[in-house]
Prior knowledge:
Elements: E1 9-13, H1 19-36, H2 46-59, E2 63-70, E3 76-86, E4 95-104, H3 113-127, E5 132-135, H4 142-151
Parallel strand pairs: 4-5
Antiparallel strand pairs: 1-2, 2-3, 3-4
Amino acid sequence: MVSRENLRYTIRPGSREDAVEAARLWMKSAEEHAAYDSVYATSPQSEKTMRRFLLDLVASSHAFLIVAVTEPEGRMIGFISGEIREGSPAFSPRTWVAVDDIFVLPEYRSLGVGRALFERARAWAEQQGATGMSLQVAAANRRGRKFYENLGFREVSIYEVLEF
């Protein structure tokens, strides 16, 4: 079992080489989300699509992929990704960093890895001049919602779907 005492890891910017493994982790995240609601069911090409998406992120100066890797093995145990987005012109001007995805392998949760990923992403956001961060979380993901609340996020909108 992994504990805080015996866990050694590094948080670093993701590279092109990290996109394949980050896409695999994203698939694990998608499996968990599909258990919350069928709206999160993936398509047959989703891993390939995510790989391309993550490659685009690492090539952009307006986006990020940050990874957590164990030392000295270099096993990826988590990642966070996102991009800069301008707020609606109808509201007070804001530049947001939208977190697209954050995932930590289950056996490494509650050990500070997710918080460390988020803190690195926040530092990046502040360097870019962002005025805040935003994200979406599955309504049934109680653990994730509590995690974001503990980081200081607050709920400002409810995302609803109607399927036909």
